[in-house]
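Minutes, project check-in
Item: structure for the 134-residue chain
Input as provided by the requester:
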Amino acid sequence: MATIHREFQVDADVDACWSALCDVGAIHERLARGFVVHTALEGDHRTVTFAGGTVVRELLIARDDARRRLAYAVVDRPDVRHHASFQVCPGDLGGSRIVWITDVSPDAAAPAFAGMIDTGVAAIRRTLGAPREA
């Protein structure tokens, strides 16, 4: 199983960032505009439509408000096992630090997931504000 780890800063404060992240039915509007184009909730499942046309069904596994952590898994791909989590922490210079960790199997699927995750990180930074480089 491969692990994809991304850690990045956004301008939004931790409360605003967590609010956008845990609004699981509106990530296409509040978190990753342009990367995710639609979300639909059905109980503890979420259907996510990406800009490229890919549609996945996810199981929302855990939400921890105290730690600002959300975990989910893609459940409609019999050829791939996927589990991911987001965590929001105070940023080093204000704003927020987001940690996105994804485990995927088989390892051969990791490059495709990493590419999507990198596109997602860019969309989140655009949506929540990317801090200027020092």
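Outcome recorded: The mean pLDDT is 95.
No further action items on this chain.
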